[in-house]
Amino acid sequence: MDKKIKKISDVIEAYLAELVDRDYYKGTIKDYSRGCRAIQQWWEKNDLKEFNEENALRFCDEVIGTRYLSPALTSEQKRRLRVVRMLLSIYRNEDFENYTPPIEKSLKTNLGEVFSKYIEWCTVSLKLAPNTLDSHKRIALRYDTFLCERGFHFGEVSTSNFEDFIASESKSNRIRYKAVLRNIYRFLHSSGITKGDLSTFILKEPHIHHGSKLPTTYTEEEIKNLLLSVDRSTSLGKRDYLILLLAAEYGMRASDIRSIGLKHIDWESNKISFNQQKTDVPISYPLIPSVGNAIIDYLKHGRPQGGKDVIIVRHDSKRKGDQITSSGIYSIVESAFKASTIINWREKKHGPHSLRHSFASNLLKRGTGYYVIGMAMGHSCSETTKTYLQIDFERLRKCSLQIPDLHSLYYSNIGKEVGNEQAYL
């Protein structure tokens, strides 16, 4: 967008078009549109004639109270702040900034003096994936802010301090934060930085059983129906068909589908090999004919020239050749479900992960062992594969026990008035 466009309405229009172009979820676009309306109303209330950085930062200071991301902000304030920064990216004609950088990018307490050693240890010894390391950094930043505000030293904390830190967090966040803090304090102790192992003061979260949720699955016939719903005569159809095949035939995650490149394919050995984005665990698949042909068809007759060093890319004019997003893959899979004749798909999950679950489910139906399924799905832990025990109905039926005949007068008279002296004869 040319920076000469300065009207707030023009900037917002270009911004919302960019969100659609980048395959943002409809719900997210709706939330950001609401933020845009609030910003535009403030603009009109203050009789501002143009959109510029000075006015945008003034909005942040007056309405939000800050121009920086802070844990103290409400979710609505964070969303407004994010929208302002994205609008500024559009105004400056810069690369689209879809996140708000925090005001504190480094640790300010004495924890910052040792944290780089901790990250190095996690990288070398624990071999944690980059995404996991980023999560550890974010949690450490929040913990550092907590220590700084209260004037605590990281080596002089108690159980009550840890509980205060996670008091306002959700159940899942409390578990995650405590796990990271335990890891940090175990490292500090093993490195001789703290005298004792303070991780022992971090209490375990009480276990609350919410019941298990069955994975969403589709039958092999429904998967065929889904694949047939794609119009493969167009370049977009060739790409979308390939995405569906990789998810359905290999159970690949969206993050891996978007990252696959020619370097991961050994055409002579007919193999696809790569390290999974989520776990960094290496995995290898046989290059089956349907997938191999779909890749060749897309590369020869569908994929735009140039762009990123990946196979599957965007086709829109503004971002042609760029790596597709995970949310974009979700939208493509959802569109295929809409075009299919699968019954009740709207009542079930219908993203790429549902095809991953279906891949495991259909392997089970063919009698494939759990170890083989775990290998095929790239699970780093066998416990993860056991989730699919819940949907192996045929084998579960074989484990069922026959209900014995009941001769008790009490059970044979359920619903009737039976005296105590009769019920236990």
Give a topology summary.
Layout: H1 8-21, H2 26-45, H3 53-64, H4 75-92, H5 112-126, H6 130-150, H7 159-165, H8 171-190, H9 220-228, H10 235-250, H11 254-257, E1 265-266, E2 271-275, E3 282-286, H12 289-301, H13 326-339, H14 352-365, H15 370-377, H16 382-385, H17 393-398, H18 409-412, H19 420-423
Antiparallel strand pairs: 1-2, 2-3
Helix pairs in contact: 1-2, 1-4, 2-4, 3-4, 5-6, 10-12, 10-14
Key features?
425 residues; mainly alpha; DNA polymerase, domain 1; hpI Integrase, Chain A; 3 domains; three-stranded antiparallel β-sheet; 3 strands; 3% strand; globular; disordered C terminus; Integrase_recombinase_N; Tyrosine_recombinase_XerCD; DNA binding; DNA recombination
Your description of this structure?
- The chain has 19 helices and 3 strands.
- It has 425 residues and is mostly helical.
- The protein has 3 domains: 85 residues; 90 residues, Tyrosine recombinase, N-terminal domain (DNA polymerase, domain 1), CATH 1.10.150.130; 178 residues, Intergrase catalytic core (hpI Integrase, Chain A, Orthogonal Bundle).
- The protein has a 3-stranded antiparallel beta sheet with strand order 1-2-3.
- It is globular.
- This is Integrase.
- End-to-end Cα distance: 87 Å
* Number of helices, where a helix is a run of at least 4 consecutive DSSP H or I residues: 19
Q: What is the name of the CATH class of the largest domain? A: Mainly Alpha
Number of strands: 3
Structural class: mainly alpha
Mean pLDDT: 82
The CATH architecture of the largest domain is: Orthogonal Bundle
